[in-house]
UniProtKB/TrEMBL annotation:
Superkingdom as given in the UniProt entry: Bacteria
A UniProt-annotated Pfam family: HIT
Record-level Gene Ontology MF annotations: catalytic activity
UniProt motif Histidine triad motif: location: 107-111
UniProt domain HIT: residue ranges: 18-122
Matching SUPFAM superfamilies: HIT-like (SSF54197)
Stated name of the protein: HIT domain-containing protein
Organism: Microbacterium maritypicum MF109
């Protein structure tokens, strides 16, 4: 069953939105800031069950793609593409899946979800797979690599 009207109203309220509250922070419970643009934040997800798994989060609180004007839409997808290029360069996946959902966190964001040589291409995508948490030094190395490739594709 879908959210009740009351629950949905709470979820889409910018004042209660977790992404509005912490997407700009250097670190939060779920991810580390890699880079940002005028339109988005690019973050490496802490759960690295798929090396390079990241998210691109729109700065403005918008719930769906259809709410963006053409310039905002172009900026969002441009940044998603740039993030994909950065992940590809830093982690050399076989393929990258791009997922825009938002039914649990209705703030426009795109999961940049790498698929690697040892992944099963026939299984369903599960962004909660794992979890696999890297050591502090491994995480720092992944963030540094992504920051470098993010800059390379500016």
């Amino acid at each position: 069953m879908w959210w009740t009207d009351e629950q949905w109203s709470e979820l889409i309220d910018p004042a209660r939105c977790g992404m509005c509250g912490d997407a700009h922070l250097e670190e939060n419970e779920h991810s580390i800031l890699v880079g940002s643009t005028e339109a988005t934040y690019f973050r490496l997800v802490r759960n690295q069950a798929h090396a390079g798994y990241s998210v691109v989060i729109l700065r403005e609180h918008v719930t769906d793609l259809d709410r963006l004007d053409a310039l905002q839409l172009n900026a969002f997808w441009h940044d998603v593409q740039r993030a994909g290029k950065a992940v590809g360069a830093a982690f050399t996946p076989r393929k990258i899946d791009y997922l825009v959902m938002g039914h649990r966190a209705p703030h426009l964001h795109c999961h940049v979800f790498p698929q690697h040589r040892d992944d099963d291409p026939l299984r369903n995508v599960d962004i909660a797979e794992g979890p696999v948490y890297l050591s502090a030094s491994e995480l720092d190395g992944s963030v540094a690599a992504l920051r470098e490739t993010w800059r390379d594709f500016a």
